Amino acid sequence: MDAERKIAYFSMEIGLDDAMPTYSGGLGILAGDTILSAADFRVPMAAVSLLHRKGYFYQRLTEDGRQIEEPVAWSPDDFTEPLPQRVSVTIEGRPVTVRAWRYDVRGASGFVVPVYLLDTDLEENAEPDRTLTHYLYGQDKRYRLSQEIVLGIGGVKMLRALGYNNIERFHMNEGHASLLTLELVDEQVRERKDKAITTDTIAAVRKQCVFTTHTPVAAGHDQFEMELVRQVLGEHEAFTLNGVFCCDKTLNMTYLALNLSRYVNGVAKKHGEVSQQMFEGYKIDAITNGVHHRWACEPMQELFDRHIPGWREDNFSLRYALSIPCKEITAAHGVAKRVLINEVNRQTNLGFDKDILTLGFARRSATYKRGDLIFTNPDRLRGLAKEVGPFQIVYAGKAHPKDKEGKELIARIVAASHRLKDAVKIAYLTNYEMTIARKLIAGVDVWLNTPQPPMEASGTSGMKAALNGVPSLSVLDGWWIEGCIEDTTGWAIGHNHRHGPDTVDPAQDAEALYQKLEHVIGQFYNDNPKFCSTMLHSIALNGSFFNTQRMMQQYVLKAYY
Ligand SMILES: *Cc1c(COP(=O)(O)O)cnc(C)c1O
Fewer Cβ atoms within 10 Å of its own Cβ: the N or the C terminal residue of the chain? Predict the structure, then answer.
């Protein structure tokens, strides 16, 4: 059976199970959703990632919103099966032994896509090498490069050791996995008994590789000084081929993947265009992200089961959600909302009220996502709550341990919540992960998003919300440019940046947000049929399209075959 697998999917993070801390945010959740849809569709895929024994991190917050990070303790053998195979990679001249733990992703019809989580915590390895697969995105550049060697080079070797000898496509989910190209080059040289890397070698590798870029944010594109690369990875003939493997002084993982892939894509239409501008001379397509139907909350699943039988097997049929009666969607959402409100009150003792319009904002705390945009003019916010109608806001999200500004952003939001507490209740839930996400995304009434365009490559939490009948109030960036039909699937904040320049004036964006929020509050309290219709259109127009079932079909058509 392993010999029949044709596609290998590589990702530094994968969100598979609520209790496995093997992801940090959207990229990992997307990887998990992708693999689930591959399994549903019987795509002959195998996936590779790292074990991340200590996870990303467990987040606590102090009273004033300072983030405290702790390692996550979890037991891989509760979820995965250790395999006997061993392969070896060279790091700083030392051989490092790698093993894999197998996690089975089972699709709707029982088809399994195996995920191999690589692990270097073995007795035979030197002490520092044992920790290489402990922390997701942890420590310094040397650590990161070493992890990428384990993932890319160790990953290909492990697949071979497991008997995967007919892989036709290696899909790099972001540049973290780019070093797999180096191992494929070595394989080609060995197979052809060539004395050196030739244009044929490169062509043979290119034929096998597919690359998805996920962000226009510079920090998302790994670069390593060649000096460090030579120390950690060693010399390699490839490094003499300037323009293919590296660019003078640095090894840029994005360019490495671009140079060696037959197909490259961004993750939404606009992101495809932005990436095309960033990387001139490469052909960059777009496949818009989606979410797996695992993100539909239980009451919604039951509702769909009653009205749209077979919706899980065929997400397109969610289009028929328009025939669901208003009373029933409101009732199903009400159940999800009560679950969330209980969670908020249990965690924060803030006394959230199920009858009040509830906004949600939860995602990684990165500055470009501008979680505090809504606090630009606190008096305006107070005025809206007092004169138009009350609302409450639930926040959640972790800042990367090294991201000082992201941490300050959390502290600013928490400070604003204290200042505004007489007018607007604001909760910041700690340790945002899949379990909380599930409650939050389905339980709020409106999903808020205020990124600085064009930085939000796609965004996926708004898609999860749409699947649960929760409309978005969002800046037009990423997927929302495609998903927003004004006053039908939700509401746009500010102008459409699809083809024009992006705004840089946060005050203007904030004003646009207040104006639209005023409209939304009014509709929520005074025009229930219209609000209800917006909920149904979110499911019918966006839930039916922004899913990984459609996305996987596009990858199969455009990238894999
Ligand atoms: C969906 C999800 C994200 C990604 O949210 P974006 O809107 O794409 O930024 C991050 N973290 C968790 C836990 C999620 O479920």
Answer: N
Q: What span, in angstroms and rounded, lies between the C-alpha atoms of 183 and 181? A: 5
Looking at domain 336-545, does it have CATH number 3.40.50.2300? no
Residue whose CB lies within 8 A of the most ligand 1 atoms, among 29, 34, 441, 467, for a mutation test: 29
Q: Which residues line ligand 1 (CB under 6 A)?
A: 25-26, 29, 363-364, 432-434, 437, 459-461, 464
Q: Specify the CATH number for 2-290+553-558; select among 3.40.50.2000, 3.20.20.480, 3.40.50.150, 3.40.50.410.
A: 3.40.50.2000
Nearest alpha carbon, ligand 1 atom 8: 459
Res 497: pLDDT: 55
Q: Whose Cα sits closest to atom 11 in ligand 1?
A: 25
For 323-383, give the secondary structure using H, E and C: HCCHHHHHHHHHHHHHHHHHHHHHHHCCCCCCCCEEEEEECCCCHHHCCCHHHCCHHHHHH
Looking from the CA of residue 462, the nearest atom of ligand 1 is: 7
For the chain, percent helix, then strand, then coil, each to nearest 5? 45, 20, 35
For atom 3 of ligand 1, the residue with the nearest CA is 26
Helix (H) or strand (E) holding 95: strand 94-106
What pLDDT, on the 0 to 100 scale, is given for residue 234?
Answer: 94
User: How far apart are the CA of 30 and the centre of ligand 1, in A?
Assistant: 9
Which pLDDT score, from 0 to 100, does residue 326 have? 97
3-class DSSP state of 280 = coil
pLDDT in tens, 370-388: 999 999 999 999 999 999 9
The rounded Å distance from CA 14 to ligand 1 centre is: 12
